[in-house]
Specification:
Layout: E1 3-6, H1 16-20, E2 25-28, E3 33-36, H2 45-53, E4 59-62
Antiparallel strand pairs: 1-4, 2-3
Organism: Candidatus Electronema aureum
Protein name: Ferredoxin
GO molecular function: electron transfer activity; iron ion binding; iron-sulfur cluster binding
Length: about 60
């Protein structure tokens, strides 16, 4: 099963992923970093697009 990994150290908190795919990503208000909405979200084309458009390249989808 594929898994989404967010490198919060590299995350700049721009919010691109949350704007592009709000059903999977959201911004943590306290840390100002991206996080997953649920533990095991469904991986869709929107997830891959959000990862591709991340300016810091901190989102990875592992097989």
């Amino acid at each position: 099963m594929a898994e989404i990994v967010i490198d919060t150290y590299r995350c700049s908190g721009c919010g691109t992923c949350a704007e592009m795919c709000p059903e999977v990503f959201r911004m943590d208000n306290m840390m100002e970093k991206a996080e997953l909405v649920t533990v095991a979200p469904q991986i869709t084309d929107a997830v891959y697009q959000a990862a591709a458009f991340c300016p810091e390249k901190c989102i990875a989808v592992s097989p």
